[in-house]
Amino acid sequence: MSLAPCSCSLLKSFENLRLRSGTPLQAKAPAQTLKRGQLQVRAARVGNVELPNQKRIEYSLQYIFGIGHPTAIQILSDTGIENKRTRELSEEELTQLREEVDKYSIEGDLRRFNNLNIKRLQDIGCRRGRRHTARLPVRGQNTKNNARTRKGKAVAIQGKKKATK
């Protein structure tokens, strides 16, 4: 069974090892597990996001767009899973976690929802919509000196030239 393409650099290096050595590596479907000698790599996927193995599950869940710290704590209390490292989760706990996370609006659905709300504001022509269209701060911040993140890099405007006598 070949591995699906992955963004994890460690898994890519394992794939390169497999190609050089010629020995196939096996991966389990729910949580990809690769073995090479004594080293074992396991990547848990929840909500179509690979969670980091070395971090506690409370912080790993925050890698999913739409799940912050309070929501992660709520998910753990609802499922009854203790806050241990991601690599220590059993398959049952991962399944429980996936089912609980599916109840929330996350990743693509949440991004689409936010973009549709911004588009709606732009279509009705309200002030917030116009500010979004002009790529200016929306919530009343000053723009004389600041707002570089929203406005983009400052462009120097050539000043008036002094008249020569």
UniProtKB/TrEMBL annotation:
Pfam families reported for this sequence: Ribosomal_S13
Name the GO cellular-component terms.
Answer: mitochondrion; small ribosomal subunit
Tell me, what is one Gene Ontology molecular-function annotation carried by this entry?
rRNA binding
**GO:BP terms for this protein?**
translation
Coiled coil location: none
The answer to keyword Cytoplasm applying to this record is no
What are the UniProt keywords, alphabetically?
Ribonucleoprotein, Ribosomal protein, RNA-binding, rRNA-binding
Q: Which HAMAP family match?
A: Ribosomal_uS13 (MF_01315)
Quaternary structure annotation from Swiss-Prot or TrEMBL = Part of the 30S ribosomal subunit.
Family to which the UniProt record says this protein belongs = Belongs to the universal ribosomal protein uS13 family.
Q: Which PANTHER family match?
A: 30S RIBOSOMAL PROTEIN S13/40S RIBOSOMAL PROTEIN S18, SMALL RIBOSOMAL SUBUNIT PROTEIN US13M
Q: What is this protein called?
A: Ribosomal protein S13
Q: Which organism is it from?
A: Apatococcus lobatus
